[in-house]
Amino acid sequence: MADSVSLINAPVLVLNQNYQPLNICNARRAFVLMGHGKAETVLSGRGNVRSATQTFLVPSVIRLYYMVKRPFIRRRLSRQGVFYRDRFTCQYCGNVTRELTLDHIKPRFREGVHDWHNVVSACIPCNHRKAGRTPMEADMRLRRLPTAPRPNPYYLFHHRHLLDEWRQFIPWVE
Q1: How many Cα neighbours within 13 Å face the side chain of 67?
Q2: Which residues on adjacent β-strands are paired with residue 164?
Q3: How far apart are the C-alpha atoms of 60 and 164, rounded to whole Å?
Q4: For the chain, how many structural domains are there in total?
Q5: Do 86 and 57 share a structural domain?
Q6: β-pairing, 21-26 with 11-15?
Q7: Would residue 159 count as lying in a domain?
Q8: Minimal CA–CA distance to 71: which of 16, 150, 151, 147?
């Protein structure tokens, strides 16, 4: 059995009233939500945490008693977001690597904008070869035209470790 310090920091999946995944919090936050009457335990069984007078089962999944509306928000441009969108692949030579740089298709000093449609992943040699030119001027071809990711309320789960017991509540995992 794990000690209570690690159990109180264990990840807990938070579901909306309609059982859609909302977030991941720690067990301490889950106990606060349940103690204030805002959530209920859906799955537990990781172990027990003891207080001075009681023993509590540590939840793995909780559900809120009320509905939280989640707006579809545009994803902010970030290095990590571009690399995941491009699948850690250089968009010029096709090399798959973790050592990538961001490349502006139309260079910024030529009024190129810093947005999803003008930024791609490039390996260091390709970025140096292209330099301050457009791909056409550098005689380089893009493998794919860049696009902004579609709004997705579940994006915060895509690159996180998901526990096996959560799989039944997460619709895109096979």
Answers
A1: 3
A2: none
A3: 10
A4: 2
A5: no
A6: antiparallel
A7: no
A8: 151
